[in-house]
Amino acid sequence: MARWSEYDTDEERLPEGMQRIGYDADTQTYTFRDADGAMWESAPGNQYGQLRRVNDTTLPSYTEDDESSPTQRLTYGRPEGSGRRASWRQEMMPLLNWFLLVGLFLLVMVWFISRGSRGSTEVVRSCDDGMTPYKIKAGDTCWALAEANSVSLDTLLKNNEGLDCDKLSVGETICVPTA
């Protein structure tokens, strides 16, 4: 069964040439006119759904088991057997929730995986005698640290095996040789 939204119009729901022409608030029925000028009425409380042709003198009864009635019927606002299809938007609407859930699940998985791999790259260094531990701050570079401690950049890199000057992390500890 298709889902309808408040943004769908009569042109999308009704057959070609059929238009809504009235509403009776007392009986809560909508009245429609088709291209041939015949009048149709909805069941009480339903804007769309099964429609019945209105006779000139009497109104049809609206019972569930009224299959033997001589009145004609429209189902879902379209005559039975008409070749008119629902728009692609209406056909794809049930899949929207499924795609949203799958997308949300994938985003959470990517976030979880990237968060878990971030913590495993930290290297714990223990400084030998003649070296001072230094905690990296924002804006620090290997060159600036070597200059500030009066050591060469090669000596700083040699004493901190595996140090990548392009990827210094704030809070990472390195060993700086004392001059």
TrEMBL record:
It holds the Pfam family LysM. It comes from the Eukaryota. The chain crosses the membrane at residues 95-113. It comes from Xylaria multiplex. Residues 132-176 form the LysM domain. This is LysM domain-containing protein. Residues 1-20, 59-84 are annotated as: Disordered. InterPro entries: LysM, LysM_dom_sf. Keywords: Membrane, Transmembrane, Transmembrane helix.
